[in-house]
Write a structure and sequence with these properties.
This protein is of the alpha/beta class. Helices cover 41% and strands 17% of the residues. The chain has a single domain, classed as Rossmann fold, CATH 3.40.50.1820. The protein is globular and about 60 Å long.
Length: 282
Amino acid sequence: MKNFFAFLCIILLAVSNCIAQSQAKLPEKKLKDIAYGSFPSSKMDVYLPAGRNQHTPFVIVIHGGAWIEGDKSFDTPTQDSLLAHGIASANIDFRFIDSVVNHVQILADIDSAVDYCVAHAEEWGTRSNGFTTNGASAGGNLALLYGYTSNKKINAIVAECPPTDLADTATLGIVTKEGLLSVVEGFGGGKYTPGKPAPAGYADASPVYHLKNIPVLVIQGTADKVVPFSQSVELDKLLTEKDITHKFIPIKGADHDLNMRNPATRKMIYREFIAWVQKYGK
């Protein structure tokens, strides 16, 4: 019997070593314009680091652009940084809002992209659950919203200058002055009448009404002229009240671009981003 157990241990060790060697041999890959769904916009770039395995953090990157413009090329620098730190990522495009597309359909696109990543996890040598979501501006809203409303397991969220409460009438007043009300109406799926409560869809499209116990990193400039700084302040307050692990980094004097043109600021943001994913996205 002792010999049998000794033999079994040797076999298990050999198998374990073979798996480890196989994973170590996995080369770095950049897969471009993968079609994850049936729409023309259903494309994503997948970056896979060398030596990856099912425990390697995997970030779903969602671009900004007010839900009406932009594409995944916005976030290629983010993907490059993640790859350089041994983190896998899928950088996705999605449908833009129009007469039939609002936040519900965009979230469905993100879910389709995640499903594709799950379905190809064995082929790619990556994890099949416990993803991290990330985005800036409208992408930050979607990263939070998907993380909070999806039935998938999301390990962590990184959101930069995200709209968090589209039902807030004060914010809607600012949005109106900036000429962006029609965008919010399209995303929330309803017409807003000043002086009246926002349509129900606005709260449905707002992360603050769907909080879950997921570690969140929030970064925003204090002088943001597009998304009121108060949006991140409110989120920070609610996460603190609910004792949800999070970190809020205000960038003093920065506008909506987070002052990313400043090398020191850019380095700090990427450092905090990478550290958050490495700690909570595992």
